[in-house]
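Input record (one chain):
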Amino acid sequence: MLKEFKAFAMKGNLVDIAVAFVMGAAFNKVVSSFTGGIVSPLIGLIFKSDFKDQKWIISEGSLNDVGEKVGEVAVMWGDFLTNTIDFIIVAFVMFMLIKGLSQMKKKEEPAPAPPAGPTQEELLAEIRDLLKK
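The corresponding structure, as predicted from the sequence alone:
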């Protein structure tokens, strides 16, 4: 059973998926830092505050003994929009990557060679001649 599992785990597709998963996680961090550090502040200029902190407060809540706000109910639309922008960037890059890989694979595939040997008409003529004998 251990031998079968090792054979399964070492198949090319599974290893490729694992590498892609790790690279995707690292790429997601790069995109998140790009969105959080560059895109959000630029969009935040419109709102005169940090874009990621934008929210729609439904219920104010109250202050506790330490002075922290408790019980606030808010829709964090700035955070949601930032994550949506992250997703769109990642999806677009993945689309471009898959499209590029597909074009490379098409170029690598050689054209199928014409079938060697007699054509269908020649084979039928040969069968006809054999049947005449």
